[in-house]
Amino acid sequence: MILVTYATTHGSTREVAQAVGTELRAKHLQVEVADCKNIRDLESCDAVILGAPLYMFRLHGHARRFLSRNQNALQSVPVAMFALGPFHDVEKEWNEARGQLDKELAKYPWFKPVSVELFGGKFDPANMRMPYKLIPALKQMGEGDIRDWDAIRAWAAGLPRLLKPGSEQSP
Which end of the chain has the least Cβ crowding within 10 Å, N or C? Predict the structure, then answer.
């Protein structure tokens, strides 16, 4: 079974995880899609796909805790990861988001995903909670959704060959 697990605050990453799960099921694979904060056991997993937004320059807290809590299990199965980053299709935002993602993943030197992909994210200032509502730059930022569903489905379609047992990268 392939576990597609995600961290989310407002549901955008869940929507992407569900699209990944749908694409994998279309290839006749057994898939479970679940919030990573609810996952306690990876014993039945043949592979794991973790999705998380970059939230205030860091991976979402639930994703960080999932990685720490499941370190041993995640080293014994193939793993892929996607992150949602920029809210606008501006090269500078993409470069900054890629740098942030690389910096976050460097904190987990044992984590060796077979694929890491960065997708555009979604931002709605109306959904901001405290203390983020107090940050002027965020309050002034316009709504944006640059999730590229074709790119998401294409990435997911290529995962089965990477997630086969034995395809994980050596430490």
Answer: C
